[in-house]
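re: that chain from earlier
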Amino acid sequence: SIANYYNGLGGVSLLLSDFPKASFYYHKSLEIRNEIGDKYGVAVCYSNLGNIEGNKGNYPEGLKLHFSSLKIKEELMAAGDKNIDPRSIAKSLGNIGLIYQLEGNYKEAITYHLKALAINQKFDDKRAISESYNNIGNIYYSEHNSKDALSYFEKSLKIKEEIGDKSGIGGLLNNIAVIYKDQKKYNDALIYLQRSVVISEELGERDGVANAYTNLGTVNTKLKKYEIAFDYFTKAIAINEELNVIDGVKECYKGLSDIYKEKGDFKNAYFYFNKYITYRDSLVNEENTKKMVRTEMNYAFEKKEAVYNAQHDKETAIAAAEHKKQKAVIFSITGILIVVFMFAVSAYRNNRQKQKINRELALKNEKLEHAYVIIEEKHKEITDSINYAERIQKSFLATTALLNENLKDYFVFYKPKDVVSGDFYWAASFKTESNKNLFVLATADSTGHGVPGAIMSILNISSLEKAVEKGLSNPAEILNDTRNTIIERLKKDGSEEGGKDGMDCSLICFDFANGHFTYAAANNPVWIIRTGAEKGKELIELPGEKMPVGKHEKDYVPFTQRQFSLQKGDLVYALTDGMADQFGGPKGKKFMYQRLKECLLSIADLPIKEQKEKVHENFMTWKGNLEQVDDVCIIGIRI
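^ sequence. v structure.
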C-alpha cells in the first residue's frame, strides 16, 4: 500500500511536470517493490521512470528503463504468471516506439509501434489500435511520406468513429487535412477542417477550434480567397490570445503576412511579419524563462531530497537525538531557501539584461525583415525564371505523341536533380532514300546538371537535329556530325579549341520492319534482357565507346556503328549513369550498375508500366533521406 501511495504521488507530480519530485516518489516505490519481491511492480516503476526521462529529453536513459520494464514483463509471461496482461507488454512496446519517435529514429519507432499494434489487434483493443495507427501516421508524416501517413490516419479515424472518440476524431480530421494541404488538394483539406471545427466546437475544445481556423486560413490563402483566409486567421488569433497560446498567435500573424505578400501589399506584409517576429521572440524568451525556473526548481528539490534522505538516516541511526535532528532540518531548509533566493535574484538580473539585448535586436530585426521582403521578391523572380526555363527545355524533348506513335510498349523514367536537367531523351522518325521507316532514339547525359546542364542539353539536341536535317540516318554518322557541331559551337567562347563539354549518349536507330536496330554509343551502354528456353532470363550488354560526344583526346576517332538482331519479347533499356551513381542504402554507398542490372532482371516479367513504378520505388528507397546527386534517365522498350 505504501508503494502504491508513492506511485500515486509520482503520477500527480508528473502531471504537474515536476520531474524531480516524480522521480523521487517513483524511486521510493521502486525501493519497496524490490524489498517485497513485487516484480510486476518493479516493471511498472521502470516504465514510469522511463516516461520521466523521455519527457526530460534524456532518450538513452528512457529507452534503458523501458527495455528493463519490457524484459521483466516478458519473463513473467514466460513463467506463466497469469496476473500479467499481454496488453501491458504492448504498452511497453508503444512507450519504446514513442521515445524512438521523439529521438528522430523513425525506423526503430515504426518497428516497435507495429509490434504493439499486433498485440492490440490480437485482443481487439480498438482504442489502443487507433493510437498505434495515429503514431505510425505521425512518423510517416515526419518522414514526408504523405501517402502512408494518410493511410494510417484514415485507419485510426475509422476506429475512433466506431468507438465514438469525438476528441480523437477532431484531431485526426485536422491531421488528414494538413496532409491534403501539403498535397495541394485544398478542397479536400477544407472539407476535413470544417468537420474538425464542428466537433471541436461541440466538445468545447477551443484549442482545437483555433488550430483548425489557422489551417483554414492557410488553405484559403493557397486558393487565393484572401478575405476568407483573413477572417479565419483573425478568429484564430482571438482564441489563441484568450488561451494564451503564443505559438498559435505567432503562426496566424505569419499567415496574415503571407496573404498581403501574395496580394503584393508589401507594406502590410511587413507590418504583420514584424508582429510574427515579436511573438516569435516572446516565445523564445518565455521558453528561456521556463528553463531557468525549472533549473531553480530542480536545484531546490535536489537539495530537499538530500535533506529527506539525511533525515531518514538520522531517524534510524540516532533515535534519541530528535531535538538535534529538527534543528539540522531547519538549518538545511533555511540554507536551501537562501540558495533559491540567490538564484531567483540572479535570474531576475539576467532577464533584465536579456530584455535590453532584445530591444537592441529588435532594431536590427527591422532592417533584416526589410531585407527579407526584398530577398523573397528576388527568390520569386529566380524561381519563375527557372520554371520558364523548364518549359523551354521540355519543348526540346521527345514528345509523348511521337513516342506513342513509334513505340507501342515503353516507359520513360526521367527524374532531374533540379527543376531543369542535363539528362535528356530525343527522338526522330523518318524515311530513308530506300523507303525504310526508321525511328531514332537518343538517351543522353550532358555535361553538368541544373541550369548549365539544361543549356548544354539544348545545344546537344539542336546539334542532333541538325545532323538529321542533313539527311544522315546512320547512328555513327549522326554522332560524328553532332560532335563536330558541338566543338565548333563551343569554340566561339573565345578559346582556340573550345571547352571539353558535350554529352555521353546512346543513339539507337530502330528498323522494326526488319527486326533489328543499329546503334552507336558514347560511354553510355545499351542493355537487352532476353528470355530463352535454355538460359532463362539473360542480360546482354552493348557497351559504349570510351569517349564522349564532344572535345576529347580521341575526338578524331569516328564512332563505330553496330547492329543487333531483335526477337519478339526482347526488352531494350537505354540509360544514363544517374541511378547507378546515386548514394544511399544502409551504408550510404552508390547504387552501382550491377545492382541496377539485378533490379531490371527481377522486374522484366512485369508489364512495362509497372516496371517504371518499381524502378522509381527502388530509386527512392535507396536514396532515402540523402540528396539526389545527379539527373536520372532510364527508357525501357518491349519489342
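The two ends are 79 Å apart (CA to CA).
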